[in-house]
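Example record

One chain of 572 residues, shown exactly as stored in the release files.
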Amino acid sequence: MNATPLPARDDFLGHPKGLYVCFFTEMWERFSFYGMKALLLLYLLKYHLFTDALGLDLLGAYGGLVYAVPVIGGLLADRYLGMRKAVVFGAVLLVLGHLGMAFEGEQARLVDGVIVRDEGALQVFYLSLALIIMGVGFLKPNISTIVGRLYPANDPRLDSGFTVFYAGINVGAMFASLVCAFLGETYGWKYGFGAAGIGMVAGLIVFLWGQKYLMGQAEPNDPAKLRQRVGPFSREIWIYLGSLAGVALVWQLIQRTWTVHGAMHLIAVVFLAWFAWFLVKHCSRKERQQMLALVFLIMGVLVFFTLYEQTYGSWVTFTDRMLTKDLFGALPIGYQATVPWAIFALGLSPVLMVLALKASDRGRDGFAKAMVALLALGIGVAIVHDVVMVQQTAGSLTFLGAFFIVVLSPVFAWLWPWLDRRGLNPSKPLKMGIGLVAAGLAFVPLMLAAESASGGVMASVWWLVLAYFVLEIGEMCLSPIGLSAVTQLSVARVVGLMMGAFWLATAYSEVLAAQFGKLAALDLPADGVIDMADAGAKYGGLFELMLWVGVGTGLVFALASPLVKRWMHGVK
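Predicted structure tokens for this chain:
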């Protein structure tokens, strides 16, 4: 990490220029990732005619792997590749994967009561998922690391820099649903998946163009070690070859979802057994208590995201089958939006940012700031247009999650310091308890919607809006509790392992979310007509269970928070 601040000319709007390169790279990566995710389950159910249970199993296996593999990608980048090579390699894999998803093949059909699928197209689909999983594994953990390295030690701007960076994540996620899901469900699946692929190409171009602004912070720690030959190839080539072998392995695993799910269960059992042994054999009393507090928090994260990931599973199918879609009713007379304006805002965004950074290089700060203002205005106008004027779909409505994060983030960024100055800032375990209760309560509007739709008339989409709003309040309470807790509470000699455990808990939540979602799986008749009363009862039962899981776990955390706070021994 830098020991001295960067020169002023290398700053823009108070932050290193490399931050904005990372912002746009991650924005496009999240655009491609969430765009595909918003479509994935609907694509499986409607195009390849998977059953709800099979589709959710695949969604869970994919989600589990996509959060588990970054543990390996981050390790390889840290020890050998460096962040630049890892991000570029991951981006190339992502581009190939997303473009492969655009190959549809023939639509599945029912012949004499038997579903006939295009097996060749399915193999391309599974291979594309494997490329995406491996690509995320190399890109996601390392782009965040680059952001941290752009700032000198103890730089007070670091927190606000990561706030800017996370804004890029949420802008990408929000536009992903509005663009990719809309195109996929309206014009054809290949257009949605293709848009995700094009977005990743844009992200790769931005990252390669902006290397000079990263100030060498993304380079390998030991280039000579990377070039060292091991047998016929250098160590770097072996890493790439091993990663491609990993793609082939994941290609097979993703087709056998029970293997992935079983492996996740086994890893959870093995970790808990190791953890118990480590506490007894290798920890002092203080270390033991801090490690117990850490695992307690990790378990809370696991439960929260088990609830949260219903948004891409049961919430999507429920919205598709039982809710109206248009947020604001009939569109204005004489106007019909055929494409989201977000396409144009996103397309122009890297151009405007490149112009801004180059103008700043030349000392033309007024023009540079004007380009940023134009960029922000374009994004704002596009959001308003696409939310109000474009007819929404079940997939595109997943934008609500990122939308409420963007809206609520400034509120909570003000709230926590305000409470802290008055000695009222909740402890980490209490914040987690509040977040879990909110996540559980988010299912109440959907329970009411399921009951309403059981009568045969689709319920209002505004029940979904309310559910997302409450859910994101919960996420805002959990957002301060992340990887920082791992570094603060873990015994130093196993901090890397505990960091991996944090990500594996997130991966495991995807598997658990799929299993819970299957409780509302429907067996659709050949004519596709849904028994609304039966569907409403199944969805309502699942949502009620999720309510009690969230509220019950949250109350346990709230009651245990004084004890867990003592175990943390002063860690804030």
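Notes: The longest strand covers residues 109-111.
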